[in-house]
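Hi U.,

Before I forget, here's the chain from the pilot set. I'm dumping it here mostly so it's searchable later in email.
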Amino acid sequence: MTQMTFARAINSGLRKSLENDPKVILMGEDIGALGGVFRVTDGLQKDFGTHRVVDTPLAESGIMGTAVGLAYRGYRPVVEIQFDGFIYPAFDQIVSQVAKMHYRTQGAVKMPITIRVPFGGGIGSPEHHSESPEAYFTHTSGLRVISVSNPQDAYTMIQQAIASDDPVLYFEPKRRYHDKGEVDETVDLSTALSMEKARVVTEGTDVTLVAYGPLVKTARDAAQAAADEGVSVEVIDLRSLAPLDFATLEASVRKTGRLVITHEAAQSGGLGAEVAASITERCFYHLEAAPVRVTGFDVPYPYSKLEMHHLPGLDRILDGVDRALGRPNSLSGLEG
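Structure:
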């Protein structure tokens, strides 16, 4: 086991994939000599050359179009979108071409493209640099969408994504890049937890708290704070946003009878709405209360002085737990 940061874990996973498969090519803006704006690809161009780690023009549409051509020719391109809000010029290629090519050709053409997307807030940057666009892509059939929350998953799941014959959007919580954790670099991908599976990270009996990406750490902190008050919160890290692992979610909700979902993205049309609706359909007679969403607000991403009010934090998540339990909360006007 090696102690490493989140960013270094992704770097190590990319390095392993480059070593194991000569068809893996990295592409993106400033990912080569600079090592990316977050230094996630630092050192890879030096070790693998400019033909394997390619600095591209500032043109996301062109980057994705090139990746499609490479995939047609049997390569496994890994595309970095420098910031979440920069992905929209490539939206047409992703949803109109990449997502549909395998289905349209009845399996004759595969699209093994991995799209790395640093996403979410908490770094003091305004719009276009702190957005959460994942719901746009979970709505699109043909795309796999995953989000990692810790260095071990970052290392393992980037390799699983690259090895997949399906296109994968790999969302990286940029405010966790410097978080450290133990990473087993000898993990066997064939026996590791599938990237489609959710993980119960904290077991509990009173409330199921669902999170992904940057808010898994916050959710774990909330569970610890709730435990100090005698409330047992089960925290689930979704890991896969499309497809969703409903088996794990259902098993937890059938046990606890209550559900809280949290994410940084806006509430309307967000992933929390899909989880809440689907679990209500599947577990209606096990629910003791309506599902609760704790999310970002339905506004453009605010400036840095306001972002901590916008992002769900410990207090807002605990307030959501109180709502699910029918305890005094901010909406009831009966704060304890």
